[in-house]
Amino acid sequence: MSGSHAKLAELILYISDRHEMDETFGSVRLAKTLFYADFLYYLKAGRPITGERYIRMQNGPVPDSFMRTRDRLQLAGDLVVKTRLVMGFTQKRPIAIREPDLSAFTAAEIAMVDYVLAQLQGRSATDVSNLTHRFEAWQLAKDGEEIPYETALLSDQQPTTEDYAYARELAASLA
Q1: What is the mean pLDDT of residues 138-166?
Q2: pTM score of the predicted model
């Protein structure tokens, strides 16, 4: 695998390995962890971690090549996906067989992934999906459409007095 797909593959292994003992962890939470890590890192650094395209799906955003990458990892023997019934839902639980290669990542990128892992720890797939449904860009996209990284900058909050003052200062300095 090359480029972003290679980074996606290694993050799938990393996140799956970190959740080895978490019975609530499955593919839905994996996909949402990837989404939040990429979009939050975009807000922080001006670029995503993986560069993957995210698509709006019914249960929230998913990397466009998520299934293909997960399947390739399985075929290579690097990942096993166990299917089981959990509270009436089918859970597809990814289990890393090999250690991830993190050499292509910066410390800041892995720190962001770890931050997202901590924030989503113990949450159900339904809960995490519902969280992504609050994301402004997910609400604006239609099922099957790409969610551009730039949409992480969207907000439904009204500008504050300080925001307006800053905008006037910025406009004056650029005039």
Answers
A1: 87
A2: 0.86
